[in-house]
UniProtKB/TrEMBL annotation, chain A:
InterPro entries: Kinase-like_dom_sf (IPR011009), Prot_kinase_dom (IPR000719), Rab-GAP-TBC_dom (IPR000195), Rab-GAP_TBC_sf (IPR035969), Rhodanese-like_dom (IPR001763), Rhodanese-like_dom_sf (IPR036873). Pfam families: Pkinase, RabGAP-TBC, Rhodanese. GO terms for cellular component: early endosome; midbody; nucleus; spindle. One of its GO terms (molecular function) is protein kinase activity. PANTHER family: SERINE/THREONINE-PROTEIN KINASE PLK (PTHR24345), TBC1 DOMAIN CONTAINING KINASE (PTHR24345:SF87). This is TBC domain-containing protein kinase-like protein. Keywords: Cytoplasm, Cytoskeleton, Endosome. Residues 466-651 form the Rab-GAP TBC domain. Component of the FERRY complex (Five-subunit Endosomal Rab5 and RNA/ribosome intermediary). The FERRY complex directly interacts with mRNAs and RAB5A, and functions as a RAB5A effector involved in the localization and the distribution of specific mRNAs most likely by mediating their endosomal transport. The complex recruits mRNAs and ribosomes to early endosomes through direct mRNA-interaction. Also involved in the modulation of mTOR signaling and expression of mTOR complex components. Involved in the control of actin-cytoskeleton organization. Residues 717-745 are annotated as: Disordered. Residues 1-273 form the Protein kinase domain. It is found in: Cytoplasm, Cytoskeleton, Spindle; Early endosome; Midbody. The lineage of its organism: Eukaryota, Metazoa, Chordata, Craniata, Vertebrata.
UniProtKB/TrEMBL annotation, chain B:
It comes from the Eukaryota. One of its GO terms (biological process) is regulation of mast cell degranulation. InterPro entries: Fy-3. Residues 375-399 are annotated as: Disordered. The lineage of its organism: Eukaryota, Metazoa, Chordata, Craniata, Vertebrata. This is FERRY endosomal RAB5 effector complex subunit 3. Coiled coil: none annotated. GO terms for cellular component: cytoplasm. PANTHER family: PROTEIN C12ORF4 (PTHR16525).
Length: 893, 547
């Protein structure tokens, strides 16, 4: 989006028409409210950026189908000329005409028609350049079908528009939908506008609406429309004196029959603009982040670099993009309804005064007159930025231009890094509502994202602090490593040809996150369908499983106007976290996943695990939708965002920890209840405190040895040499266990039945070596960086007989011989070793033995005794023999 | 290709594209549906895939295709527009009707062209009152209201006294007549005396009713004038003479009788979450009370009563109104049963804002007649149109008396003089609700749904619903009957509340379920146990974690 510059933010409001009572759609579901349809259709307007058009920023739904649209706004418009009552110079008229046509032509290229051209919708910026406003109204209301008011102003309607008549779908006498208008209707309206400018007065002022329209229609049987209109308004003299090119422009615009009237594109090339057009360079769309063309291709530095930073009294906020400013305005306490109410645009009557008297059984109400407050008043109100500006007075100018390069420098290089620590300690919810903090984050992220992929590592680093909601879509895409010309790839996928999955997709979409306005809009459904189909078609080895729709939802929501990015993100996300989950026969993958999950519950919370196993409440019963959809099926979008902000930073085993964290939040209720209650509880998952869940899952993750979540069906090792040469983001949390190269000390795949038999997870020898910080192990790669909290504390328990133990063991391990460890009741036999074990309760207990079965039984016994964090060394002591790490205790002196 | 629902007539046109690859010359022809619905770049991708086009023609193809679509679309627009304009010149289209319909819609839907609004006294008063009640003057207002209330109360107790005296006198007279029955007096004479007594009562009652009405009217007028004046005076800052405090008159009535309720009231509150992913929070309350308890003012000027009155007054013109569902029979009046009781209660205090009940009911009667007429004419227009369930016997009923309303229909009255309620939904039910086998499609239940819908559209955030769909218990209402009914209503209301989320975006509401006074305490707790099983009660927040 372009930056704010001297523009202002404006808001106007209107009502969508109410739906008839209790009518169902063809699929048996309730009809979508018209306001939601409009909201969905509006979204695309946000992407329409052109110097001659007012940038659309946002739309919001109020009560009772009210919609409020926020857009770029200027106080002055062509109406000002009319108020002055003077005619405008021909040069100025040509300039205005050319600029309006530029805007219209750009709209037409995107398939839009203005239809509501009028003097107060042609705004003028400070330099006197034209900015068209309200050009999206016709599009967002489905050509006027979703509102009760006509679009356009009587004096400016083209004859063919009037001839269509006023028809509305809610009107039973008109069954056909309103006919759509083509680009030429705007040319007529422009003609009327230009005529008014030339004549210096408004047309048809003295007539009432019906007469005005009749007059316009009657122009069909006139030869020279311009002369007739001029005569009618007594300004023939003025018109006659106009230069020939202006007159010919007027004639061309005011051609009665559309076939004779040029389109905006035709007119722009017309010789009448010969002198004007040379002053204008065609607008070039800025290149987005993911495209095949060079982003810097058209970057031009001024000859004198110092000119760039000439004026030091700059308004830094005005240099930010208009949607950022609006976002901050909202954070700083901006309230659209209040602004509009203050200006008297929203006038609501107390509801007690507007109640109907009588309601029939089918819900039709009687006895209420038409409420005047529902009438259209499309005046645009300027939103005052003063509150935001006072809020941001303390933000230094440097904060708007953070330096990214010298990361290591000890100098306080950017304001943000100075201030962040203070704010970072606050809860995320508060940070997301803090105006200054968000400004800093947005500025910083905006800059880093611009530098993607070069600054990929910085994205990871900053994302670990938090991700500003405004830029989440792009930030996620970079975290997922999206690169390349995604649009071309997406375009080349056939999303139209019917496939067998269509039916299922069609059934699932109207049930997926429909509380959300965007996703429940018809536009949302269309986009859902396209992205899902594109994924299904482009992944022939995988199939559509129910749940894929939920998985798609967050990406689609964040990249609503960029299906290609949504598709790319989804395609990158699934192999990373849900590798092979969408196979036609995915049972082995899911079974292994759930078994590992079950082991992790036992690892982190033995008491809960014992209880759940006892009542037979196994993960298969509740956790499949959790993992298959990465929790998108169970949480609302705003919670998913916070969850995934962290999930995307973690590796593919992080979801296990989230699962355990959810269970722990419901711990008390689960422990207190039996099987039936648990099933009921999970059938409709209670509210989960997501911030706590994230915090705890990170904690759990840190306590989990990496190899404990080993899965043989996980994504195989990727090719580590990445083309861009920046390497993986170095982090303990991000590197997958599967990513590290396989050595002798890694875990061996296990049969599912064997895996299922074990209560505790196995860990690999290399993990053990790493965790116990056994030296001399230089031949394998250690993770480069660890979270500051440090590695989990470990105690190795050697359960071989004491002779074996004495013959060689790893240093620091304690000997608890298997045969003597447990009493007949399964309790630990007291002794010095068991006392040590007891005293180290809470540490990760690694059971080491010769035979795996024995270790697994031992571990199971410990879990039964509610020992947390018990795991088994995969392969037993034998694995370690080759490493030379076994030590013989020096004989006691 | 996307299926066209026959909405817009489509035409097929052929797009041809020629290109050379090496020495070969190729021609690509594609049939296209106009108006073009699909995305051009998608179409392009599909063409490339389908015809295995070489990538070097991609850009040419794209420009050619775009140009073709653009040109053809404009031609279509032009042709369509010109046929329309043609019709105008050939008079196939009536120009007057056309322009009038435009003029009508402009004047009906846009402020710019609408007729200026005539000032509404009711709304002006509403604004003034809302402002005053939210100012320090609210105390004065409430005291004034209370004083008016007391004088009405005195009047009513006087009336009751006089009626009682008359009845006593008549009883004595009747006794003496009865003793003479068969001796000097015949049955006829007794009847004559009885009818005389009845007439006497009627006369007295109507006399009092008139007086009451007169006093109320005067009070209302005085009050409104006073409020407007107060508002004016407050606007001019220096003039604060009117600000003299109005003190609450001590009530001269004995307050012993006023303590009937509250003791027997049982109530239990729940906080629930609705929705699968996004949850909205609502409050539910189960109450055992008389339905009119929500309407009656406590006579003793205790603090609680005043607070409640203030609460009601504050929210009267706000966007959080309180509603009550009253179950009535099919006639719109206030002559019998609960309707009469309600009317009596509503007269205990002057309504300073809205027309009084009888007047409102008269309006409703007219609206009902109008609605019937509308419906009939509509049905005649489209005989094969969708019929609502059981319309056959409905129409039979209707033909008998069009001023009666049907089960599931309801009318709304507005009151400012009730203690906890602003809006009363008079929901029509028939004897069917007493039977044990009503379903979720029953008119009464549908009526509830529509009531909740009105609550959404008119910002009624607290609604009281009779849980068992009856106000009084009778013998056939056994324990299983009660449980079954409660389950049905709970479940239906839950469904409707979930639906409401899509109507209003999930505003938190309070729904009060009311059960009659006469059910046992045990029954009440059975019902209160049932509620959390049907609704998902939110877990209590534990501040101290065990771990």
């Amino acid at each position: 989006m372009l930056s704010l510059k001297d523009a202002q933010l404006g808001a106007f409001t209107f009502f969508a028409s109410a739906l008839p009572h209790d009518v169902c759609g063809s699929n048996g579901l309730p009809l979508t409210p018209n306001s939601i349809k409009i909201l969905g259709r509006f979204q695309i307007l946000k992407t329409i950026t052109h110097p001659r058009l007012c940038q659309y920023v946002d739309i919001s739904r109020g009560k009772h189908e009210r919609l409020i649209v926020v857009a770029e706004h200027y106080e002055s418009s062509l109406e000002d000329f009319q108020k002055q009552g003077k005619s405008v110079s021909p040069e100025k008229v040509l300039q205005i005409a050319y600029e309006v046509l530029e805007g219209l032509d750009f709209l037409n290229k995107d398939g839009l028609v203005h239809r509501a051209l009028g003097p107060h919708n042609v705004l003028l910026d400070c330099k006197g350049n034209v900015k068209l406003a309200k050009f999206g109204l016709y599009h967002m209301t489905d050509h006027g079908a979703d509102v009760d008011f006509p679009i356009g102003y009587p004096s400016y309607l083209a004859p063919e528009v009037i001839a269509q008549g006023w028809s509305h779908p809610s009107d039973p006498s008109h069954r056909e939908p309103p006919r759509r208008s083509g680009p030429k209707v705007d040319v007529w309206s422009l003609g009327v506008l230009l005529f008014e400018l030339c004549a210096g007065r408004r047309l048809l002022q003295s007539f009432d609406t019906s007469e005005r329209l009749k007059f316009i229609l009657s122009l069909g049987c006139v030869d020279d429309i311009v002369t007739v209109v001029a005569e009618e308004h007594g300004c023939l003299e003025v018109i006659k004196e106009l230069p020939e090119n202006v007159l010919s422009l007027l004639r061309k615009c005011l051609t009665f029959l559309p076939s004779g009237r040029p389109t905006p594109a035709d007119l722009l090339k017309d010789p009448v603009f010969q002198e004007v057009s040379i002053h204008y360079t065609p607008f070039r769309k800025p290149v987005g982040l993911f495209s095949s063309s060079l982003r810097c291709a058209h970057l031009e530095l001024p000859d004198d670099i110092s000119k760039l930073c000439q004026d030091d009294k700059e308004d830094y906020l005005a240099e930010r993009a208009i949607d950022e400013v609006y976002y901050l305005w909202c954070l700083a306490g901006g309230d659209l309804e209040k602004e509009l109410t203050n200006k008297g645009i929203i006038q609501s009557k107390p509801p007690v005064c507007t109640l109907p008297n009588f309601i029939l059984e089918d819900g039709e109400s009687f006895g209420r007159g038409r409420d005047r407050s529902f009438l259209l008043d499309d005046t645009t109100v300027t939103l005052s930025l003063s509150q935001l500006k006072t809020r941001l007075t303390d933000v230094a100018g440097e904060a708007y231009y953070p330096l990214l390069e010298d990361e290591q420098s000890s100098l306080p290089h950017s304001n943000s890094s100075n201030e962040l620590p203070a704010a970072v300690t606050l809860p995320l919810i508060i940070r997301e509502r803090d105006t200054e903090y968000q400004l800093l984050r947005i500025v910083l992220f905006d800059r880093i994202l611009q530098a993607y992929p070069y600054k990929k590592n910085l994205v990871w680093k900053e994302a670990r602090v938090d991700i500003p909601p405004l830029l989440r879509g792009l930030a996620w895409a970079t975290l997922l490593g999206i690169e390349g010309d995604i649009q071309a790839k997406y375009d080349s996928i056939d999303k139209d040809t019917p496939i067998p999955t269509d039916r299922q997709i069609e059934v699932d979409i109207p049930r997926c996150h429909q509380y959300d306005e965007l996703l429940s809009s018809p536009q949302g459904h269309v986009k859902f369908r396209r992205v899902l189909k594109a994924w299904v078609v482009s992944h022939p080895d995988l199939v559509y499983w129910q749940g894929l729709d939920s998985l798609c939802a967050p990406f689609l929501y964040l990249n609503f106007n960029n299906e290609a990015l949504a598709y790319a993100c989804m395609s990158a996300f699934i192999p990373k976290y849900l590798y092979n989950f969408f196979l036609k026969d995915n049972s082995h993958v899911i079974q292994e996943y759930l078994t590992v999950f079950s082991q992790l519950i036992g690892f982190h919370d033995p008491e809960l695990s014992n209880h759940l196993n006892e009542i037979g409440f196994i993960p298969d019963l509740y956790a499949i939708p959790w993992f298959l959809t990465m929790f998108t099926h169970v949480f609302p979008l705003h919670k998913i965002f916070h969850l995934w902000d962290t999930l995307l930073l973690g590796n593919s085993s992080f979801p296990f920890c989230i699962g355990v964290a959810i269970l722990q939040q419901l711990r008390d209720r689960l422990l207190a209840n039996g099987f039936n209650e648990c099933i009921l509880l999970f059938s409709d998952l209670p509210e989960i405190d997501i911030e706590r869940c994230v915090r705890e899952s990170i904690n759990l993750f840190c306590w989990t040895p990496k190899s404990a979540t080993y899965r043989q069906h996980a994504q195989p090792v990727k090719n580590m040499t990445e083309p861009n040469g920046f390497g993986k983001a170095p982090s303990y949390t991000t590197t997958d266990y599967q990513d590290s190269p396989k050595t002798d000390l890694s875990r061996e795949p296990l049969k599912l039945s064997e895996l299922k038999a074990e209560v505790s997870p196995r860990i690999s020898a290399e993990d053990l070596i790493d965790l116990c910080e056994l030296t001399a192990a230089t031949h394998f790669k250690t993770p480069t960086k660890k979270p500051r909290s440090g590695k989990p504390k470990v105690i190795a328990v050697d359960i071989r007989s004491s002779e074996d133990f004495n013959r060689g063991h790893i240093s620091g391990s304690i000997s608890v011989p298997y045969h003597t460890a447990f009493g007949p009741e399964g309790e630990l036999v007291p002794g010095p070793a068991t006392a040590t074990l007891q005293s180290f309760r809470g540490r990760v207990i690694v059971v080491i033995s010769h035979a795996m079965t024995r270790a697994s039984v031992f571990a199971a016994n410990l879990v039964r005794l509610n020992y947390p964090r018990v795991c088994i060394l995969d392969g037993g002591i034998n694995k370690l023999r080759a490493t030379g790490l076994l030590t013989v205790p020096s004989p006691q002196i | 290709m996307k299926k066209n629902k026959g909405k817009i007539s489509t035409t097929e046109k052929e797009f041809t594209f020629e290109f050379r690859a090496g020495k070969q010359h190729y021609v690509l022809t594609v049939p296209l549906q106009f108006p073009v619905q699909e995305n051009t770049s998608d179409l392009l991708g599909r063409l490339k895939l389908l015809h295995k086009l070489p990538c070097f023609v991609e850009n040419d193809l794209k420009t050619a295709l775009c140009r073709f679509i653009e040109r053809e679309t404009i031609l279509d627009y032009d042709r369509e527009a010109e046929t329309l304009l043609q019709k105008l010149t050939t008079k196939d289209l009536d120009m007057d009707r056309l322009t009038d319909s435009w003029a009508k819609v402009y004047s009906e839907s846009t402020l710019e062209h609408a007729r200026p609004e005539e000032p509404s006294r009711e709304e002006d008063f509403a604004d003034v009152y809302h402002e005053l009640i939210h100012s320090p003057a609210s105390d004065t207002l409430l005291n004034l209201e209370h004083n008016y209330f007391l004088s009405i109360s005195e009047l009513i107790s006087e009336r009751d006294m006089e009626l009682k005296k008359l009845q006593e006198r008549q009883a004595v007279e009747m006794d003496s007549v009865m003793q003479e029955l068969g001796k000097t007096l015949s049955d006829q004479d007794v009847n004559a005396v009885a009818s005389q007594h009845f007439d006497g009562q009627q006369v007295l009652e109507s006399k009092w009713a008139n007086e009451l009405k007169q006093v109320t009217t005067i009070q209302k007028q005085e009050y409104q004038e006073w409020v407007l004046k107060l508002h004016q005076d407050l606007q001019t800052p220096n003039n604060s003479t009117i600000n003299e405090e109005i003190k609450v008159k001590p009530s001269q009535l004995s307050e012993a009788s006023a303590q009937m309720f509250e003791e027997q009231q049982l109530e239990e509150s729940f906080t629930i979450h609705l929705g699968a992913q996004l949850k909205t929070m609502h409050n539910l309350r189960l109450l055992r009370a008389d339905v009119l308890d929500f309407c009656k003012h406590r006579r003793h000027g205790s603090g609680g009563a005043k607070l409640r009155r203030l609460q009601t007054a504050l929210s009267l013109y706000s966007t959080s109104l309180c509603g009550l569902v009253l179950l009535v029979d099919n006639r719109v009046n206030s002559y019998s049963g609960i309707k009469r009781d309600f009317a009596t209660v509503s007269k205990e205090c002057t309504d300073f804002h809205f027309p009084w009940l009888e007047e409102q009911l008269e309006v409703v009667q007219q609206v009902v007649l109008y609605a019937r007429a509308q419906r009939n004419s509509k049905q005649r227009e489209q005989p094969e149109g969708p019929k609502n369930g059981g319309s056959d016997d409905n129409t039979k009923n209707l033909e008998r008396n069009t001023s009666n309303i049907l089960p599931g229909e309801f009318y709304i009255t507005r009151q400012s003089n009730l203690s906890e309620v602003h809006i009363v939904f008079h929901l029509c039910v028939d004897d069917n609700v007493r039977s044990g086998n009503i379903t979720a499609r029953d008119p009464a239940i549908m009526g509830l749904r529509n009531i909740l819908k009105v609550c959404c559209t008119h910002d009624i955030t607290t609604i009281t619903v009779p849980l068992l769909l009856v106000h009084d218990m009778s013998e056939e209402m056994t324990i299983p009957w009660c449980l079954k009914r409660a389950e049905l209503v709970f479940k239906c209301v839950k469904g409707f509340m979930m639906e409401m989320v899509s109507w209003d975006g999930g505003i938190s509401r309070t729904v009060q379920f009311l059960v009659p006074q006469s059910i046992s305490e045990e029954m009440f707790y059975q019902l209160s146990n049932m509620l959390p099983q049907i609704f998902r009660v939110s877990s209590t927040l534990t501040l101290t974690s065990k771990r």
